[in-house]
Amino acid sequence: MISRGFSIIELVIVIVIVGLLAAIAVPRLAAFGANGKYATTHQGFRQIAAALDIYHADYMAYPPNAAIQTLPPEMVGYLDEAAFTVPPPIGRAWDWNGEGSGIRDHGFNLSIHTVSREDRDEMERRFDDDNPETGIYRNQSHYLIWPVGP
């Protein structure tokens, strides 16, 4: 008698192979999510800083300080409001520390509030010089800071 189905051994082998492939693929797919959140955050910093630099070129000054996650009114036309008011992939909120902010340790700066140490270190490692005191990213307490201007 000829059997037309699969044997138990054949089914077990197929299940083991599929399991191994899944074990290899899932961690790699999870890494894509992490890569995306850091790249998107870095691009957000670049986009907002470029808009601030264009504003500075037009008026020879930066806009005044604004509340957390609030686009300075002077920046309307230079930057889409959603780019500033939607929370970044890491941290809680964008913040512009312009004239009148009282936070001048790093000059005028763009920052993200409530960023974990792990995320700050990863941004430094991926996009900067791996030194939290120099380069484009400055780490301070629970902020990730991008100094703007001279």
Automatic annotation (TrEMBL):
InterPro entries for this protein: Bac_GSPG_pilin (IPR000983), N_methyl_site (IPR012902), Pilin-like (IPR045584)
Keyword field: Membrane, Methylation, Transmembrane, Transmembrane helix
Cellular component aspect of the GO annotation: type II protein secretion system complex
A UniProt-annotated Pfam family: N_methyl
Superkingdom classification of source: Bacteria
Keyword Transmembrane found: yes
Signal sequence region: none
GO aspect biological process, one term: protein secretion by the type II secretion system
Keyword field contains Membrane: yes
Record-annotated membrane-spanning stretches: 6-26
Name of the protein in question: Prepilin-type N-terminal cleavage/methylation domain-containing protein
